[in-house]
Amino acid sequence: MRIDVLFADRVGIAHEILAVLAKRRLNVVAVEVDPPHIHIDAPELDVPGFGALDAALRAVPGVESVTPIDILPGTRRRLHLDALLAALPDPVLAVDRACRIVVANAAAATVAGRSEAALTGADFGRLFGDAELSDLLVDNGFRLAAGQEVTLNGQPFLLDATPIVEDGRSAGGVVTLFAPSRLGERLNALQNFDEGGFDRILGESAPVRSLKARAARVAAVDAPLLILGETGTGKELIAHACHRASPRRDKPFLALNCAAVPESLAESELFGYAPGSFTGAQRGGKPGLLELAHGGTVFLDEIGEMSPYLQAKLLRFLNDGRFRRVGGDREQTVDVRVVSATHRDLDAMVAEHSFREDLFYRLNVLSLQVPALRERGDDILLLARHFIARACAQARRPPCRLTVAASAALLANPWPGNVRQLENVIFRAVTMSDGAYLDAADLELAGARMDAETGGEPAEPSSWDEAAAAFERGLLRRLYPRYPSSRKLAARLHTSHTMIANKLRKYGIPDGT
């Protein structure tokens, strides 16, 4: 039986309590003293004998109660800790201040190829074949972020260490080993926590519905995907959605913008680098996106800007899934899906020999063409209202709405920067205005449009009516060729057929275009 003795703390009371059990010749196998409790495991104590022992213990000055318990608290804590360590998928080792292993979980024993008992007492650094690793841990006070790379049984891991402090002094630390793909999952969670699937792609126009239907089909096919479209059309959003709809949805999605980094940095970011490969390199090397995204998706944005050297290295990886880190001599194999995107005309680049033809065919197994905003005009106001709501929330101001003139200005604008330009225009208008409505002038579009139409500075209107008439005339002239009837144009501008017919007659459209 195990008992919990509650007592008023005083010198010698624990000794007196144990003396009572010794006098009754009860064998004690475990004692845990945690004032005001002393927990005792006496296997020979049974229920009939408990009554007499209870009376004898209560006779000891300071003893307040004696209660049977099912398990000692320390044992319970140890069992829970063992279960917790066994459930952790990553190798975890606790080391003392001399960097000797005190505790190792099952995952660490499996990776090391030893039993948990065999790991106990081993020197931490020697386990990894790096005697200096223990000194590194001690010198850093057992504080290391997950960036130091180590190798255990030929497998690379990123080391994370947390110190254990007792009475202000270091008592060792807890070391966790992350496989590169596990760190990739953490990066993915931080970078893409709010990225959604196809529901995040706003639009009800025919081009968008067609894009979503095709994207949903190619997302399920585990093959390279090339996304084409102008700048600002949302190619990365499509790539995210395809990943979320693919069998790899639970693995990382990591991205590299090939136009944003120089060739040398892009190579190390994508493929990683070996220890000592260049000045300033991390001591243990560094995994690249391909390793971090193992099992998931790597998105290569602006693939048309990739250098010829990197094109060749990427082609080899696509051929067999194997690569070498920068400065490394060991080949590695990872399983990732490559999704790439560009606004460039890769066919023309292939013809000009500025992009490898063989790489183009490897990337272009599946393809998606993202429509420009001007090709999905029915979505402009829907997107604008969405961006207004988001911008108002960011600016912490009451919601606002578009006037009829502002809506017409948005519909008439050519949007060379596509959805990104629309979002920026709305954000600027919301930030710079205070009213409950956004008018055409708040969007700062009219001047740019008039410049494009006249080829120079716009004429100064003599009155408000003249300015409004010039705007209406320009809008109708721009839209009529695409919607060549008063009914179609009225439906496009969400207004009455009679009003549009009157305006067309007023401005002599179509004859006056």
Automatic annotation (TrEMBL):
Q: State if Secreted is listed as a keyword.
A: no
- Could you confirm whether the keyword Cell cycle appears in this record? no
Q: Which Pfam families match?
A: AAA_lid_14 (PF25601), HTH_50 (PF18024), PAS (PF00989), Sigma54_activat (PF00158)
**Signal peptide bounds:** none
The record, for SMART domains, names: AAA (SM00382), PAS (SM00091)
- Residues covered by the Sigma-54 factor interaction domain: 201-431
* Location(s) in or outside the cell: Cytoplasm
User: InterPro entries from the xrefs?
Assistant: AAA+_ATPase, AAA_lid_NorR, ACT_dom, Homeodomain-like_sf, HTH_TyrR, P-loop_NTPase, PAS, PAS-like_dom_sf
Q: Where does the ACT domain lie?
A: 2-71
**Highest taxon of source:** Bacteria
Residue ranges spanning the membrane: these are none
Q: Which UniProt keywords apply?
A: Activator, Aromatic hydrocarbons catabolism, ATP-binding, Cytoplasm, DNA-binding, Nucleotide-binding, Repressor, Transcription, Transcription regulation
Cited PANTHER family: HTH-TYPE TRANSCRIPTIONAL REGULATORY PROTEIN TYRR, TRANSCRIPTIONAL REGULATORY PROTEIN
Please report the name of this protein according to its UniProt entry.
HTH-type transcriptional regulatory protein TyrR
The scientific name of the source species is Azospirillum argentinense
Q: What is the lineage of its organism?
A: Bacteria, Pseudomonadati, Pseudomonadota, Alphaproteobacteria, Rhodospirillales
